[in-house]
């Protein structure tokens, strides 16, 4: 299937298992620091995989030891963070910044709206944008050497591409969220596991990828109608009250329960074999 | 008081302590697997206890080693999961499924809307519907042998009677919620305690029931006006922003603070004795 | 700067570090139990510090061993909890109670709406109102001897000045929240840390204050535009869905990103020195 | 089909046209004033028609000249409005009132949740409960002699079974809504039409019924999948923002668009004949 | 009662009828144009009347022919609209503007949160702030000579103290709202009545005041528990979905229905006399 | 400026006045019926104009007598409305339909998210999609010959690209909305004006275009910071409660009030000349 996809400039996209895609940020010399063309390309990749029938789950890593050092501050300081307010009035600058931030946010949100589950694997330096991306993914795991940080206040800004909107919804301890976001202190794998930011810690990056593939593989073996519906319903329910969650679930399943996957799954269960499901 | 209640077909309802009711699913030969008449009867029981003046808290268990194996798949595959789409068009089938799911959801929601707190005790096999029910209860405890699982994707469907709408609201670590819901992997008591799904783990079912009764007993000894108001206000606040939570609380308490329970509680406190409260 | 502030009757307000304020409840003989003039004064203090340009973060403690025993029940039983329903009809009493509760709630909410982060340090007896205040603060830490309790049901009422609306939003394990709110049982430092209610436990009050000052100091050294924006955006996002969180963030940052703090922070980073920022 | 339904005590239910039901309140000697058994029976009727495959739209009128004089105050003053607060404390009375009001509200809400559109025809005296019911219906029309009134403040209470929650959502001019709700002044047909409370005014009750049947008949001739989906989506959208409205619509229609009604409707359109649709 | 209130600098507050207060903006020489001390004083007045037991409804007019020409632009251009961005960075200016706007908004919102209904009477020039105030009032009436205008875009800004948040909620025709807000064109009494912005038009200011007093008088004669509850419930329902509206109503009325006003109103009704009600 | 834009296949885009764009659907031989490439192209055009600095307002019409006959049913019946359910299971078909509808909705929503105000001019046949588009525009005007219809139920489906989510938010009379959506009856210009669906009716298409250009011209002459902010704040407020509306407005204006447009507008006002504003 790899041949079906175009090749990408800043990312490697491979298919280590049937129905499992692997996105790898590929700028190891710069610790995978992001500049604009990268997040634009990431959106394109994720949007493509979202409806690609041969993909049922995705893992996401960085090339080399660091997941990402975050925003390429040098590039940003010539662009986004350098609005050049001198030339125009602050209101017009604000319009441009707002559009720019909204587009950047949309690239990160691609992970959340992706119809397939995404397991993100943090390893080594995982700063700033790493947390935005991780919070938009579905499952977070990390290697023991991961160093994580909501870095933004250190460069004078409030994180604006997702961390502040999502971190409090993926970690229950809101006091911890506030502390790490307002101090920009680095936290490690153990702490991340303790507060529930990551699901699991592995000895090193290699083991973490293997662990991530296992989770991704498990998901890829189930009915895609069931798994993708589950992702959608969990995300919807996070953003709505219980009653709206239940109602939406009922409407969603009024179509989904008509899938033949249920009969296949039940039959396979009785016959003790692994079911196969049509593409979706 | 037991004599005041009718006897039920699929459940035992007893009163192990003053003001404490015990609901026990009673289909141990089938590992307490549920079919439709059971959830309809459960709703009837919970709705009755909800306004029963002799009940102030409730524990909920299963008869035998398993809490419940979940949906009785055999029964369901002849009913709910067998919409017989061939006979009619998918839109009409969808209307029927939606009504059916809504009614089933309503049975599970009975636990949440019950005015009295419900302590659910998971033990042994606690699959599928067990998690829906547990998420709708107020306090979850389990025995060390509990095996829990959001089973639905294994049979080709997204859980639709409450788990997906509530689990992310009772457990803070949303990545964990996503993982267990999209992999259907079994998790045990220790893990459940670590992520906060259960409040406490006991050595075995017997100890867990004893522990559950202690919690239930503590609640039953307090002012029912205070305890039932607390349940309502916590549930409301979960579904609303802080400002709406505070406002609703103020309106609620504008009546509740006029209770004589406050004077009774204060006086008993001074006199170092246990207060008694009028029925509610 | 201390001289710029008026002196207060029930609180000591000091400035242990540059840009860090310390609020101390000062009624140690009564275990810092609160009566109405105290919460009114607390609001005044916090509202003042909220926009005071010399304050960038705040720690909050109690004088003496107890943080607070909660409401001064004796005072309350002659006021708020003694609505004297006999003289008027319950509806009119309800109007008065509602106004009274709303005003009290507003005093507690002052901590949440304060533009600067507040680190609250629970020590010794920390009952009732202690939890309301702590839930409205940003970061909670405690000493090993802290004894915490959502005390309200013990005196016949549902907590109404913030705990029920906020505790479920700062602790992920909702079953734990329900248990402690409906049983009024005391919990200690270790349990509080385990469920994520407090960020950290220190050996004693003195160490906890030192720890709190460190966190406060870290925050005070960052750009105040960044830190205060972060607090606001985290609080907004807690109360809104992700999309509204992102949109609001973009609008907020369309002004905030025009700050010179970003250039200062970036430059200082390159030059390996600590940046200084204009007052805010 | 009439024979399929049980006969009712306080209402006449007839079928004046194919697929159109007519509910008539039948207590003309008391100007159709409602007491509790009546609203309980109304709920039963509407819930039955809601899923009855032979019903596609409903008109609702009163027997005799008055639609309804509202609550039977005499009956209510011995029940709902006589909480007998002397016997118990106000908090316990509040619990009972809340349950009672909730159940009454649910009876009125039956009109809104009914899957089929309801055209209500106000004629003659249409006070109090008339407005609650009318606001919960889908289309309101009236005869020229209709005298309407949000009567509740005249008897010392805020309308609590729907008018205050719905009237502002069916009439755009919120100032008018506030005026009629806070003055209890009577308004006539012309005013009701001008503000958009009723869709149309007819010369007399007979003409209004004929007009109502025409609207109901039009709806009954369309695809029931389309009409019932439209009611649901309009009600959902009223209560949600546009984005949630669109999303829910897309999910709903992902099943509904699979109906054969579309092919039938398109074909009939080409062949210039009236389509027929399977029951729903 | 007039003597009970302090006298005010920019407003006349009188009591033309029992239980009815009249607020009159008193800066006729400047067409009642507002500058900061005026809106701060207005808040004080309205907050006072809100809980004043001798007030049950309020009318609000301007002294002289104009209701208000809006913001005193000259004063504003030296204050609010002159942020002097040159001296500080735009982010810090934004903090100050935000606080300033929030405080100004709060002064206008005083009309909405006032527990008593407010009838605003627009006459002559009624520009800018006039519409903000009118949208926050409960009932709007006007004289035939009223010239109304959402003036803000004419001075380069989006209206920010209420019009944009409320006008679309008091007028149903959203296209009209958008047109008048984005063109700043003047509209007259007839148009205002046609779109439902005002409830009624009177020949001149004198007649409008008389008409306003009639509406206010009607409200003042009803049970204050009922009328004030009605205002609160209508405002709440405007901002919430129907279900939350109903639930809140039930909780509110669980206290309010215990009022003796109901018995008084019912008895008076039977005895054909005007009821009197205790103060509130 | 026209030369700066590419030419489009299905639309004419012209610039009849400075800062005013005119979009004209250009398929007059088919009564401007839409098929998929058309709505995709419309999105591209509107998204482009949204940030084009030379555009400050937009009018939208159809070429020839009809605005649009709606969906090109023939094309749709081979695509969207022909899901070919036979080949796959209904759940998979549902996934495809949902994606398809979501993309179509997004094309219509382009009008709403466009930063510039859009005045839509309905003329002649304006069916189905015409109402979806019109509801997403800001101001609706029409010619006297306009024939409007929410056509969808006539072809067996619930309108799903915007009408059901937006019509009830642009017209206050919800009963009228329900009637026209569930009967698919045609309504004319006079009725549309009476219920507030259109702002104004003109004698014929030519006059309507002239009238539309006048409104658009008025908007184009004001500060673009003010007008575009006003559109955004009105749309946000429609979807949020008043408090969130006010808060968002304050944050938005904390940047917008720093514009030089305010000084320009004030000065021009004093000097009685027309201000000019920088591009945005």
From TrEMBL, chains A, B, C, D, E, F:
Compartments it resides in: Peroxisome
Signal peptide residues on this chain, from the entry's feature table: none
Pfam families xrefs: ECH_1
Keywords linked to the UniProt accession: Acetylation, Fatty acid metabolism, Isomerase, Lipid metabolism, Peroxisome
Pathway of action: Lipid metabolism; fatty acid beta-oxidation
Keyword Isomerase in record: yes
Entry's family note: Belongs to the enoyl-CoA hydratase/isomerase family.
Descriptive protein name: Enoyl-CoA hydratase
Organism: Helicocarpus griseus UAMH5409
